[in-house]
Amino acid sequence: MRSYCLIAPAKINLYLQILGNRPDGFHELVMVLQSIDLADVVTLRSRSTDDIRVACDDPNVPADPTNLAYRAADLMVRQFPDYHARFGGIDIDLQKRIPVGAGLAGGSTDAAAVLVGINLMWHLGLTQGELQDFAAMLGSDIPFCISGGTALATCRGEKLDPLPDLTDLHVVLAKYRDLPISTPWAYKTYRQNFGDTYPTTPAAWDACKQKAGGMLSAIAHHDTQQIVSHLHNDLERVVLPEYPKVQQLRDEFQTLEILGTMMSGSGSTVFALVESLAQAEQVKAQMRRALPDPDLDFWVTKFCQSGVRLASR
Ligand code: ATP
Fold first, then answer.
1. Distance 290 CA to ligand 1 centre (A)
2. How far apart are CA 29 and CA 194, in angstroms?
3. Catalytic residue among 11, 96, 175, 245
4. Is residue 11 annotated as part of the catalytic site, yes or no?
5. Residue 293 known to be catalytic
6. ipTM exceeding 0.90?
7. 17, 53, 62, 239: which is deepest, by most CB within 10 A?
8. Domains of the chain from N-terminus onward
9. 8 A C-beta contact, residue 261 and residue 172
10. Which atom belonging to ligand 1 lies closest to the Cα atom of 267?
11. Could you report the per-residue pLDDT of 140-182, keeping only the tens digit for each?
12. Alpha carbon 18 to chain centroid distance?
């Protein structure tokens, strides 16, 4: 039986601004999301039985119905019962390369890969937009993971406007191994600490959105200096004081010759942007020397222009 092997890239947030409370309980956001080459590998196969099974090489990831990849398959099974009856259940094999609880959308991109893979495996013929509508039912970052590249994400993060592809910037990621940060915790704490300062009307939100204009204009002009000077993440205001090790990564990167540094999403990954692979390797080596902790992991990667895609055979 044919297997479908998909590359599921991670993302970093070049910009994350929290505007205020939405009636559905989520936050209204303005984000600029960027795909990177660091990716999980997701392999799908049909099963002779009608169940869904997840296997994962990372023991920290639940291989059960709470796994986002399982939930994506379950959604497709419920949406397309005739195809499920015809093709049978689904085997999902996850090779995790993206660290967990890292603010890199690791679970979201696996779910995106499952949606894309089932569309191919069952010959559903869904468009990217239709797949993204299903993705939005599962999680705010999942629609972006399907299309990838560089995008403006608004509303809960699920409304996407593609932005011009950025030049090939290189990225050094740093993360303490046993330091996952819960995304719901970060947003809840932000609301507790700053909720009384949120603007309360859509008109006031629109005024706040102007702040993102500098980043969008910098991207439109491919102006790297301006892009790095507009890196922004509101969640740093709650995560850095609570997690000194994340603050330390941020501070240490700042001492080096890099273009810019920022925490990604809700952390705990901190990234640094540099212009070349050689500079990225040098920054990684300098960080290792400055912080010789065996529990501190680094990845050297770069911007990529695609979301989930089939692995070349
Ligand atoms: P985001 O950047 O979208 O907020 P994250 O990168 O911070 O997400 P994930 O790596 O997606 O966080 O993991 C968050 C939680 O989701 C973890 O507690 C993990 O156990 C659970 N999880 C469920 N499915 C997966 C999956 N396929 N891969 C990784 N984690 C998963």
1. 29
2. 14
3. 11
4. yes
5. no
6. yes
7. 239
8. 4-165+306-310 (3.30.230.10), 170-302 (3.30.70.890)
9. no
10. 7
11. 999 999 999 999 999 999 999 999 998 789 999 999 999 999 9
12. 17
Q: Which amino acid is at 111?
A: A
For the chain, the average pLDDT equals: 95
CA-based Rg of the chain, rounded to a whole angstrom? 19
Residue 66 CA: which ligand 1 atom is closest? 23
Residue bearing the CA closest to ligand 1, atom 1: 105
Q: Find residue 93's DSSP bridge partners.
A: 43, 55
Give the sheet arrangement for strand 260-263, strand by strand. Answer: 260-263, 270-274, 170-176, 296-302
**Which residues are near ligand 1 (CB < 6 Å)?**
61-62, 67-69, 94, 100-108, 110, 141, 183, 265-266
- Of the residues 40, 91, 110, 141, only one is catalytic, namely 141
**C-beta atoms surrounding 8 within 10 Å:** 31
Among candidate residues 86, 81, 56, 84, the one with its CA nearest the CA of residue 68: 56
Does 195 carry a binding-site annotation? no
What SS3 state is found at 164?
coil
Q: Are 240 and 146 in contact (CB under 8 A)?
A: no
Q: Which tens digits make up the pLDDT trace of 33-42?
A: 999 999 999 9
The whole model's pTM is what? 0.95
Nearest CA owner, ligand 1 atom 20: 61
